User: What shape does this take?
Amino acid sequence: MEGQKKSRSVVWVVIALVVAVATYGAFKYVKRNNTIVDNTINLPQATPTPTPTPVPATPAPKPISSTYKNGNYSASGFYNSPGGTEQINVSVTLKDGVITDATVTSLARRSEARFYQGEFISGFSSYVVGKSIDNVVLSKVSGSSLTPRGWNNAIAQIKVQAKA
Assistant: This one.
């Protein structure tokens, strides 16, 4: 019994010593970091710099003509799903390289693919209409992550068709 009391006493002494050392170290650290040193340097007053004469603005460059012909284009886009290859038909109207109208028709063979193609069709147009055909690479639309691959496939074909 006496050995246990001695062990407990030693443990409490060690704990008290650790707390004391930690407190001392923290106090020294805080005191050192709160010391303010005045290193002010008095610099001579600068003389005002004259205002430069404005340079005439250069005219904006002329817009580069689109590399795509205006018109209506269609292509079938294919993609792989867990149930096999699926297909959508994509039609776009281009004006100066910008998609002004787009439609997608579902050609899904399986009911799950029809569902996801329907979700894609209900939400894709806000991502593509009014955008450059070069900037409409889609990855996930309305929960559909595979149908956009068909879109991207079809758009790649349309770009080839519409090249000027």
Notes: Residues 1-36 form one domain. The CA atoms of residues 122 and 164 lie 31 Å apart. The longest helix spans residues 2-33. The beta strands are 71-81, 84-95, 98-106.
